Amino acid sequence: MSGLPFLTEPGALLDAVSSSIKDITGRETKASTSGGTSDGRFIATMGTQVVELGPVNATIHQVNERVLAADLDVLTEIYYQTMIKLLA
After folding, report:
1. What is the number of domains present in the chain?
2. Does any domain span residue 1?
3. pTM: predicted TM-score of the whole model, two decimal places
4. Does the entry feature the keyword Hydrolase, yes or no (predicted)?
């Protein structure tokens, strides 16, 4: 076991997440392994698609760590739209 990064190959999950982000925020995205490590590295080795998507983490692991409520609203809509696309 290691903290090695993982990168999901393009597929339905990545497409749904990317297009939902574009639809909701107008931003183009790209897959990246920047940031910290997570349990996603274990799931990715099973051959399934993994995407980590969360709020802006400018204060992560710092005193007064916080997230804006507005960021959570946007994230909720992205998750919802992603599920709609995957289940369509």
Report:
1. 1
2. no
3. 0.83
4. yes
Q: How far is residue 74's CA from residue 53's CA, in Å, rounded to a whole number?
A: 12
Q: Which domain holds residue 35?
A: 12-87
Which of 85, 88, 69, 87 has its CA nearest to residue 21?
85
Domain assignment present for 32? yes
- What contacts 16, CB < 8 A, 6 or more positions away? 82, 85, 86
pLDDT tens, residue by residue, 23-81: 999 999 988 777 667 788 888 888 888 888 888 777 878 888 899 999 999 999 999 99
Alpha-helical segments (H) within 1-88: 12-25, 40-44, 69-87
In-domain check, residue 58: yes
Residue 34 lies in a domain: yes
